[in-house]
Amino acid sequence: MRLFIFIFLLLIYSADLIGQADSLKHGKDSIPNRFYLLQKVERGGETMPEVEIKEVTIVGGPKATNRKRDYRRYEKLIFNIKKVYPFAIIVRNKLEKVNEELISVEGERERKAYLKSVEKEVFAEHENEITNFTITQGKILIKLIDRETQNTSYDLIKEYRGRISAAFWQGIARLFGTNLKAEYDRYGDDAVIELILQEIEAGRL
Fold first, then answer.
1. How far, CA to CA in Å, does 145 sit from each of 26, 83, 95, 151, 196?
2. Helix, strand or coil for residue 164?
3. Domain locations in the chain?
């Protein structure tokens, strides 16, 4: 669907307001200047830092009676994840590359010219693939972008393009049954997706 190529390009083009080359690394928050304050807890007469860890969810075997149907759904989920996962990686890597390149770009005109060239490059490379995404694949992509950048698509657009732009694209996404605020929950609703991704990353799928 064309919605997803617009969002995909917008996320990459949003990097024009990022000024830190190290603001995006794999597994770290892609929005700069964020930090997390650990709690101080006294245990046994000693004060130690402590952070709450989410409960680990163990996913068991399917309980549904229609095993063939469940297996087909599982196979379809694997297919959809394999199709969109590379694009979540592209968003992460493109943002990082643009951040690094902008350090050496001087002047507003040069910045705009560089970003325009990035936009054209990405559009030429990926337009056909992303515009053909199904709504289900688009929903998965939005969640995987959150997994890779540690920020929802909505937060990225709001941070770098403004609240009005984020609200506009959220409204468009809602029309297609999609939510840019969707968060990736590897310990809950997305536990099965996480298991599949771990198998993909380990080269077993």
1. 11, 14, 12, 7, 16
2. helix
3. 2-17+65-201
Residue pair 166/180 in contact (Cβ under 8 Å)? The answer is yes
Q: Phi and psi at residue 187, in whole multiples of 5°?
A: -100, 0
For the chain, count helices (H), then strands (E): 7, 2
Tokens representing 119 are 């936009």
Q: Which of 39-43, 163-167, 172-176 has the highest mean pLDDT?
A: 163-167
Q: How many residues does the chain have?
A: 205
* pLDDT tens column, 122-139: 777 777 777 778 889 888
For residue 143, give both structure tokens: 């969640």
The partner residues of 49 in beta bridges, in order of sequence, read 40
The C-alpha atoms of residue 64 and residue 87 are separated, in whole angstroms, by 32
The answer to whether 32 and 21 are in contact (CB under 8 A) is no
